[in-house]
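note to self — DONT lose this again. spent like an hour looking for the file last time. sequence + predicted structure for the chain T wanted, 194 res
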Amino acid sequence: MGQTQQTENTEKIDVKAIQDMYKKFVMECPSGRLFLHEFKRFFGVDPIGEASDYAENMFRAFDRNGDNTIDFLEFVAALNLVFRGDLEHKLRWSFKVYDKDGSGYVDREELRSIIDSLYRIKKGSKTETDDTQLTVDEVANRILQAVDSDGDGQINLDEFIRGAQEDPWVLNMLKLDMNPAGWVLEQRRRSAHF
């Protein structure tokens, strides 16, 4: 598995799409900096809707220098990773989304928070699967049991990557995080501004 595994999404951002995003980026934020509320508006995310928490976590992961803004270079670099990165790079990015406090570990509450956000997005987009029949706690417990190899109650980056690569169910449960490109495209389709 591991390095030979490909992700399902092979879509790529073309030059026209980047130009369109740049035009919208400049219109939305003439300062050259995108703040969280602008990021949500940029993708047409309801500030209190089911995708709001997920958008906040994506924003934090895109903000590479931690200044609570995203400049256009951070934005394009993140989208390039999202659309073109290999599985390990996407898992590393995904880990940053899960590790809300930046501690280098994902604890049970961080895991629950993201799973809850993903469930709300799946319900809102009518893409519920059999996996959403499990409760948030059941999913968090099952992921921790499968991935937390040292049993310390938290997941470090190595455990996260190895666990997702070795367990198809875990990878499937992380699918929206593993496919943020799909989320970005879906938000673009929903947005009247694109």
